[in-house]
Amino acid sequence: MRKITLFSCILFLLAGTSVAIAQNEEHSAEISTSVPELANFHKIIFPMWHKAYPAKDTATLRKFVPEIKENMAKINAAKLPGILRDKEELWKNELAKFNTVAENYYKACESKDMDAILKAAEKFHSAYEGMNRVIKPFVKEMDTYHKTLYVIYHKMLPENQFNEIASVMDQLIAEADAITKFPQDQLAKRLKDNTPKYYTISKELYDATVNVKKVLEEKNNDKSRAAIEQMHKTYQKLESVFE
Fold it and tell me: Domain tally for the chain?
């Protein structure tokens, strides 16, 4: 009897994992946090920052201008995937800064002033990193959690698919637990004095996620919806620590 019960539990866990995988595959484009137009910029950034800049090779830095202009046009026309919809305003703000820095880079290259070109290259690299920080969470475990949360909140919940949500909650709880265990020494490099705040809110997120599973068992749609809303708000609260 015990073997049968254990076998049933394993089948249940596998079924939940299969549902989560299927959901992620179905919405793969929407839950990707990659913006190809930004990723393609790395082809310029790498030789600029790691080769030409340290060598003070301003002639090569000036040669990047046509490629940068071409890529800036593409990134200005880029659209964010669905999972990044909450980042739209922040993306636009950073993109405006990126455009200003790019224009200053062009002017510096026209002047042929070595110091001005090097400073412009440094600022351009910083602006590029700023763009990446908008879409890529510092904690990869948050990215993993967010992909599952996105499907729950924007796909399953609007369709009242509470049974489907329940089937992926064990996975989401495990992902929330992983967030709470991110190494403090790595986090402190980014958050500094805000590091304790991360751990406080990540624990809140874990508790909110566990609570959703418990509430779903009551089969009360209104309570389930409220619990999921709270879980979503708590995740956004954790994200705000990095802004």
Answer: 2
